[in-house]
Structure formats: C-alpha cells, structure tokens
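Title: Prediction job returns without error message
Component: structure pipeline
Severity: low
Priority: P3
Assignee: unassigned

Description:
Job completed but the reporter wants confirmation the result is attached to the right record. Sequence as submitted:
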Amino acid sequence: MLFSLRPDYADDLPLAELVGRLRDYLDGELAAYERDHAVTPETPITRALLEPVWQRSRELGFYGIQLSPELGGQGLSYRQLAALKEEVAASGRVLGHSVLGEMGGPLRVGDIIAAATPDQLDRYFLPVVRGERACCFSLTETDAGSDVRAMRTTAVRDGDDYRLTGHKVFSSAGPVADFAIVIALMAGTEKTYSAFLVDLDSPGCQVLPGATPMSGEHIESDIVLTDCPVPAANLLGREGDGLLLGLGRVNVNRLLHCPSVLGMARRAIQLTLDRVRTRTVAGAPLAELQSVQHKLADMATSYYAARAMTHDALSALDGGTVPRLEAFMCKLQVAETAFRILDEAVQLHGKEGLTQGEEVEFLFRKVRMFRILTGTSEIQRNGIAKLLLREPGLGSSSS
C-alpha cells in the first residue's frame, strides 16, 4: 500500500467499507459521547462509562469483529484487523480502546480463547464477546516483567481444585474486569506454569488500584491473591500450558500492538502538519522553513517504512507462517520510529507540545511507553540476535 495519512484500502473493498463506517462512528457518535461525558485520557474508566461503548460497538459490528462467525465476529484477517486498529488510534478517540474490544473485551482475550473448553466459552468468553462481562490478563509481577519466569504467584493443588497466592501488577482493564486470566507457577516445580480463570469476586482475591503509568490513564489494577480457591474447571488448557498460552498471546499481540502505535504516529504527523501550516514565524507559516520541511519528510518516510514492514509480517501471519523474527523486528522498529516521530512532533509544536492537556503531549507520553511495554526494545534486539545466530538460513551468507 502506498503512503497515505488516510488510506482508502482500495485493494480490499470490504475492508474499505468497514473503515468508512468505523471512521464515521469514531468521528461522529463516539466523539459526541466523549464530549458529553467530558472524557479525557486521565478520566477514570468505569463500567458505567464503557458499557454503552461496548454495546453500541457490538451493534455496529465492530466489537470482537476479528472472531470467527461462530463466535459472533466476521473472521477478519490479521491485516484487516490491523487496519482497523490503526484507524482507531489515528482517530484520537480516548475510548477507542473499547470499540474493537481491547479494554476488557475480545481483543484483551486474544487467541487464548482457542484454549477454552465449551463450558469456559459459555461461562466466561461468550459473555465477553457480547459485552456482558469483561476480563483482564495477569502475567506481570513487580520483579517479573521481561523475565516472566521470575514470577512468584503459585498454584497449589487442593484435591481436584487449586489455590492461588501471589501479587500481579499492570493488569490492564482490571478496574472494569469480572475475571482475570492468571498465569501461575505450579507449587513444587521450578518451571511448570499454568493458566487459570479467576473470578475477581472470589474469596482471597483483591483488586487494588494499580500504578498510574506515565500516560496518566487509570486503566491498571493489581490483582492480589491469598489462598484464592479456583475450581479445576477453570484451568485453561492443561497443567504446564501457562507460558505457552501466555507468551503465545504476547507474541501475536507484539505484532498486533504495532498498528495501534502506528496510528498514534500517524495522528501526530497530521497534527504537526496542521500546526506548521497555521503557526506563523516572522510573518510566514512555519511550514515554509526548509528545516521544518526536512523534519516532516523524515517523519512521514519513517512512518511509511515501519508500516510497510508491519503489514508484510501480518501478511505472513495470515498466510499461516508465524513471523517470529519479523515480529521482534516490527516491535523494535515501530516503537523506536514512533518515539522519534512524537519527539519531533513535540519539538515542532513548541510550547503547545510541552503543555499537559494538549493531544500531542499526551501522545508523546503514550508512545514512549511502547518502548517498554510488550517487551522492551532491548528484549526485541535480544530476540532478533538469537534467531539470527541460531536459526538455519537466517543471517547466512553465500560464497
């Protein structure tokens, strides 16, 4: 796809129609809803605020749209889903995270839904798809972020059931969730991890306000488990599948987070273009300065390159290939590229770029986080180097 800050997706007419309807909703009805409720990025999220967005998005066919038709979705390809995610982020809507179901909805569950039993689908996941329940994913701990195997949350057998004890942090959507997908170490083992569905109103389970990230958003919770009973029926997959399920979800999400960050970078480029066209310096628009033009050229070019490689990897994923190396590369490139774009956007906005309450200043803080979230840039480089050195055919030369 050629460069555009408002892609027309002419090569995929069904997607073009979806994008058109999505833009109308984001720029019209959802924008009005946010104005009516005075929503800002720092507004605490509540069920009362989000549920109308979940339900309306579902009525319009967007909530859980990536799911198979049997689960209530439209079976989108990863590339099509990425296009919608980019549009949501590029719209600047604060509640955009609830349109496709990222804030406690089907996108928060991700591919882990494939591991659910029929009973788990009926009791947990289908209500999430319908916007009746919400979930969060609990993997990270204070000293177990990039090194997830350092987690201390443990699961102890209690007859046929389990009891969980531990402290999870950065459980996004925790403030509105009904249940959590918790990854825990099986007690008495060194490296056997399992995944559990934990009802957040269970005895021994506390949902506490989480740390406020630098974006200022109130979307995180701590999940504190103290001898919390979990029925055997709530084990996801088999014992020992926890990291496979958890990190498998992370691997796909690593790639699927990239379109959202690209959308924010795209939004920043558009805001910057608008700014330099209207801001005058010495009686002329800022846009007439060659130094400014060069910055704009670099911002747009780097965005286009990062987007192209992301869609190339997504196409491979749609074709049945798991692009492990490319996912690491995309996460690294998108994170670093978007940060540079936002840094230049702040520079070109001047005082406005430094002022809290201005959109570009919020976007800078939000994008900066992505260099750490879902694996730091250093972790991505580690992954790239290991695959280059270990995998046959990668990094090889011919003589």
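Comment from assignee: result matches the submitted record. Residues 242-278 form the longest helix (37 residues).
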